[in-house]
Specification:
The protein has helices at about 5-30, 30-45, 65-80, 85-90, 90-115, 125-135, 140-150, 155-185, 190-225, 230-250, 265-280, 285-315, 325-355, 360-370, 375-385, 400-430, 435-465, 470-495, 500-525, 530-545, 560-575, 585-605, 610-615, 620-645, 645-675, 680-700; strands at about 255, 260. By secondary structure, it is mostly helical. The protein has a two-stranded antiparallel ribbon with strand order 1-2.
Length: about 700
Amino acid sequence: MTFTLPALLSVFSLLAISSAVFFLSSRLKFPYTVLLVAVGTFILVPLSTLSPFTFLREFTLTPELLLYVFLPILIFESAYNIDIRRLFENIRSIGALSIISLLLSAGFISLMLFLLFPLVGLQISFLLCFLFGALISATDPVAVLALFKEVGAPRRLTLLFEGESIFNDGTAVALFLVVLGIAEHGWHGSESILWGVLDFSVMVFGGIILGIIISAFFVKAIDHARSNEFVQIALMIVLAHFTFLLSDYISEHFFWFGHHFHLSAIISTTIASMVIGNYGRAKILPHAQEFVEKFWTESAFLANSLVFLLIGFIFAALPISLLPFSIPIIIAVLVVAVARAFSIYPVVWILNKMKKEDFIPFSWQHLLAWGSLRGALAITMVLLIPDDLYVSGWSFESTPKEFILALTIGCIFTTLFLKATTITWLARKLNIGSLSEMEKLEYQEANALLHLQALERIERFSKKGYIEPSTANVLKKEHKEKFKKACSLCVKKLETEDTLLGERILRLYAIGVERETLDTLYDFSEVNERVYRRVLAKLTLQYERTELGNQEIDPSEEIIDPISRLFHWISGMLNAKKRGPSTEDRYLYYRTQTILSRAVLRALRHMDEEHAPLLFGKKSFVHIREIYEIFLAGSQEKMKAVTKEISEEAKILSERFARRSLLETESRLLEELFHRSMMTPKVYIALKENIERESDVVLQ
């Protein structure tokens, strides 16, 4: 597609319209993606036939645009935020859903359509049915996950949905390309099966290996660019498209024994994004991490918006009338729905019987079966089918590609307008979003703290004269009543329920304080990456254990995710001297633990001593405070021991990290003063250069 003036006007008009649709969907409490398709189909398509608005048709979804621009964005945004350790904890479930369930679904769809279509006078080859089954079995989690956020679905259920979608994308495309290759070159019996299995294996495993290799180079590059935040961010941004395009480029030139093999660009991009998201993310500072996350979230939002808006234009641009194919479309929709159930319930039943992972309840299974929406990937695969694809026995006016496109759009419309609009109702009907006992108590405690904070602010504003005394009295009365009510409900809950609920919530709060303090230390260069990663992993484990009801906290217990283990092993093989924690790491680790414990104790002291015991229980409040006093004493003792062991080196380390922190403070203050126009650009540049020179000296 050529980017002409009308095409560019169309792009930005569609983006502006999608923003308005998003606002409208928030007000109407209606799924955003569904409303996009509705607006695109029933408003923009008719509007674009009018002469002033014909430019809206100038921007169209092409296979290249979907594959090389939009798809890498959507893959990276999902895979980057997947917790790889939790993924591995549920790898059997996610692997079964994304591979076995997908193959079952594709096989069921192809067989049933092959048997049912002749009953309505359509003689369709099994290969063509299989091609449709492969592309329509991949799920799109965008709308489902957005709705899950609204109802507060459990984290594991969300992980199963997202993990399945991420990995079945690659599996579906690999299967689709194998079947498409057979359709293009003909069926040759067992030879086709053998080469098909080999092609599928090379695509999947070759994609995994290439993704790891590319991500390893990017991780190393990001590490070397530690002193240049802009370079680090740029590398994080170009990774997705670079990996995808390189995988496709290699695939074009990958011949072995005269046979053309492919590497899965989707799988390689998924793996590379997961590695960067879990291992490479810690190599850039927290405020830069925040920028990268916002960039990809916004990019995915824009990509999805354009795709779902333009689905209506694809539908309208079909060169055939869908009316003669209405019965086949209805059959396909029903078969796809049954196939999803067939691919979920038996597979999950076997997983539950194996008891290798946590039980997946029936309510979750119902949502997995019903929440199987179709979206951008299915459209992408249809557009990859050649226009002149020849299928033996085809005798219809429409081409095989047009026929499959009609079935695909019918399934997408049905899942969006039927399933996406009812999944929130189903989740609530199944009590998916209902609060647990701990969450009910947490709700009342948070409510009480909000009103307490409001009372403090009213008092402060009243003293400064920001609000009238009469208004202040009215507001105080309102918030005092609400605060007392929330406190009484907390006390009642603590008396009637497990008394340890309050302690669990207070522990989660304390761990949250530790994580926030740790990010601040890392942002100000007071802790290196190795120690930051180690402490963050420990805090993550403690948070998860506490949330699940484990009342014992072991400060020495740590976790290392599989990707970190892999990179540590490679690093150890390449440099044996770096094995084990260095003296600097040991000193920084105990120093960091000391600072974190102090931060929690300070936060507990700042809590209102009169009301905090009411909200969390007096015994719980005292117990948590005692625990962190023990943590503080232990970390201080160990830090003193290390300091004594390396007294001179400890002084150097302490001075170095203090200087780093001060330079970071100076740098931020300088940026703030400049943005407030409190200095000229020349003064800003001169001072910035001074700070950078000093930073280079300190970092050496």
